[in-house]
Amino acid sequence: GNKNVNIVIVGSGIAGIAAAHRLTTSGFNNVHILEATERSGGRVKTGRLGDKIIEIGANWIHGPSEENPVFFLARHYGLLDPEALTPENQAYDLGGETPWVTNIFSSSGRKLSEKDIYPALEMFTMLLNESSEFQNQLGEPYTSVGDFIRSEVRQRCVEKWKDIDSANRSLQLCVISGMLKRECCVNGSHSLDEVGLGAFGQYKTFPGLDCTFPGGYEGLIANLMSELPDDIVRYNRPVRSVFWSNTEKQSSVIVECEDGERMNADHVIVTVPLGYLKRHHTRLFRPPLPLHKLHSIQRLGFGTNNKIFVEFDEPWWDADCDVIQLVWEDEDALVDQVSDVKSSWIKKLFGFTVLKPTERYGNLLCGWIAGHESEYMETLPEEEVTHAVTQLVRRFTGNPSITPRRILRSQWFQDPWTNGSYSYLATGCSQQDLENMIEPLPPSASKARPLQVLFAGEATHLYYFSTVHGALLTGWREADRLITHYTSTNPSKRRMS
Ligand code: 6YU
What we know:
The protein is α/β, with parallel strands linked by helices. 36% of the residues lie in helices and 16% in strands. The chain contains 17 helices and 20 strands. It has helices at residues 14-25, 69-76, 82-85, 87-91, 118-131, 145-160, 166-187, 218-226, 274-284, 291-299, 341-344, 358-361, 371-379, 382-397, 431-438, 468-489, 491-496; strands spanning 7-10, 31-34, 46-49, 52-55, 102-106, 111-112, 233-234, 239-243, 253-257, 262-265, 267-270, 285-286, 301-303, 305-311, 323-327, 351-354, 364-370, 406-409, 422-424, 453-455. The chain has a seven-stranded mixed beta sheet, with helices on both faces. A five-stranded parallel beta sheet has the order 7-2-1-11-20, covered by helices on one side. The chain has a four-stranded mixed beta sheet with strand order 10-9-8-12. A hairpin with a 4-residue loop joins strand 5 (102-106) and strand 6 (111-112). The radius of gyration is 24 Å and the shape is globular. It starts with 6 loop residues before the first strand and ends with a helix. The protein binds FAD-MDL72527 adduct.
């Protein structure tokens, strides 16, 4: 019967697991996941630094409230702290402002107050909000978010900051540089010059104040996996090629693994990251992908955002501090890329988040660094990264004796199965590119030309790309596509459901 159709899912990240979960709970009993590595979770990856639980990949539930399926599942499995479950937390609406207490340090070794940088913060927040309002507007004068923000700051500061002296103005511009670097991390882009302005409002959020998993994000993966049939995942099974068909002659798909093993499938759900697709689409799809799909893979952005965890014996930040922001005073104003990556990559690190609560994490910071500087950082020996971070902290605090206890960094660009962190809408991209990503093969499938290859994963969600909840929803979406396909072609099934 239809429940025996053979479905192969490529990739055991949250999208692949979600698809398998929905298919198996709907009665499909011939579902297999092929995973390149020895573990499930993909970019949901929990690690340890000493006895502390840290997230190498996804960090927060973005917008933890009723509508967010990750929040829903995390609550269902009992994985969240009580504060995250409160109505106040769920109702929290950021509206551009953050409730985080920020400590600001400058490269000259002085500590600035939030008041000192208020003009820059106010201007940047306003411009970032305005960046989301260009949706589908034709003929906007700027192509990228970086271009827009930089140009508008230069124009608006003349009037807005006319009472601010020139030294302070330069400082405000340097503060904005730091905020641009921070936004590179949020988007996972090298520079905001690569982030499209026209589609910046495409990304949607849920209400709720971002929360973390006290026991690690992988708890979500483990709980979902425990509800799947045993041995549904075959590990260390990288898929090399998917042979589909553009004609009506062949309706099944052949999946070939790196070791040459081949298997037949009625349907394949591909969930590999966009970074992997960019590099390997030629080898992965035979015949090649339709051109519109291929062009969207090339046009969409996929960059690098990494974390550098740093542990200290004593805090050098305030007890109530949530975020440490760094201001480079000697840099050209309004830049989000360093001029010489090898000698100055550390200047791209915008700051640190403080892991909370302190009783759980001790004096542990997470530094954030995006772009080519981040990719270069990955290639350095750990001692060199430690040295750079040590020099940085000593300079910005003016305290030459501060020494980190230990560090640990992520290396997402070097990960051969990811090739970066997450996707963004690059300049020239529109919703159409995401729609092209979603479209199954063969294009315009029908009864005569049934669904062969389906696409899920973070980079295939129209509004929630770059997130765990987005990826989860795409797995469910593609499972539902198949479930619907069999419900509407098989009358006996329709009666059952
Ligand atoms: C979120 C957050 N977060 C930080 C960092 C990273 C990401 N995200 P997977 O890659 O998981 O699975 C694919 C599998 O396929 C994998 O197991 C591979 O091994 C396997 N595979 C590959 N090739 C194969 C082959 N050939 N054969 C077989 N198997 C193969 N998301 O919600 N909260 O805090 C963060 C963060 C450092 C790297 C994140 C966060 C992104 C998520 O981790 C990611 O989307 C999903 O886990 C992807 O799941 P998947 O199943 O699709 O792929 C305005 C505007 C702004 C726009 N952006 C703002 C939003 C901010 C996004 N922020 C993220 C921030 C952080 C910090």
